[in-house]
Amino acid sequence: MSAAVRVCVDRDRxxxxxxxxxxxxxxxxxxxxxxxxxxRRAEPPADAVDRVRLAVELxxxxxxxxxxxxxxxHHAATGAPAPETSATP
Length: 89
Known about the structure:
Elements: E1 5-9, H1 19-23, E2 28-30, E3 37-39, H2 49-58, E4 64-68, H3 74-78
Antiparallel strand pairs: 1-4, 2-3
């Protein structure tokens, strides 16, 4: 199974080729007005991650990127301090 990812798109770089939509239609769409990429799911399900990675490779404009999805348990697992909160007595 693929690791969870967060997807980012750069509409300024997109050239509207549509490879992403064909490869992962549950994650990407094209704007009806300008034909540029629209992100349907920034955090795709695990069964779509391989298709998203393929869409990154197939994008001629380099408008799609993926990064590991942050683990909400990261702070507890690493022993890093929890984010500060303000407490009012």
